[in-house]
Input
Amino acid sequence: MIHIDHISKAFGKQQVLRDVTLDIPEGQVLGLLGPNGAGKSTLMKILIGLWSADKGSVSVPERIGYLPENNPLYEEMYVVEYLRFMAQMTGIQHSAVSVQTLIERVGLIPERHKHIRELSKGYRQRVGLAQALLGDPQLLILDEPTTGLDPNQLVEIRALIRDLGKERTVILSTHIMQEVREMCDRVVILDHGVIKTDQPIDKIADLETLFREATK
Output
């Protein structure tokens, strides 16, 4: 269970999160939906421990995987080399999930001996996902994971994320409503740092209208 208890965060005079409370059970794919500047990335950075909340508290699993929006990679490295290096750097080179297993899982077999700089955007996202999965995380946090992908890549990455959500809790941040409909069990709409709605996706008849009403 992930427990977010009345957290708030400000940067100077700008209040980014305001009294956010959420409980997320194990094995749920939660879509964190909101316009740019809603506070989605700030919330995720608090969950991974990069930033601390000004008020409130969070309780998260010990093992967390994180794919940031810009997906920083060492482009001069080969795919296999990079993943082995990251496993060593993070102290999880003896993880039960091997680099080879992850390469197979995320569909990187044809590209595994290429330099990362040679890869398409879609395959770079797969490398980022593999890196986020190195420690066999109980919680996987994905910040705008499909930004910049072409339609074919979108279908493949969405299917992969849905599959990953069968085994762990996933928090998916996006501003694309179709992503939430296709991948998530639950949607939380955040606007100006406030939760405006929190509902199971199968109870929402018209997500676009709900979003407009929540964020106007």
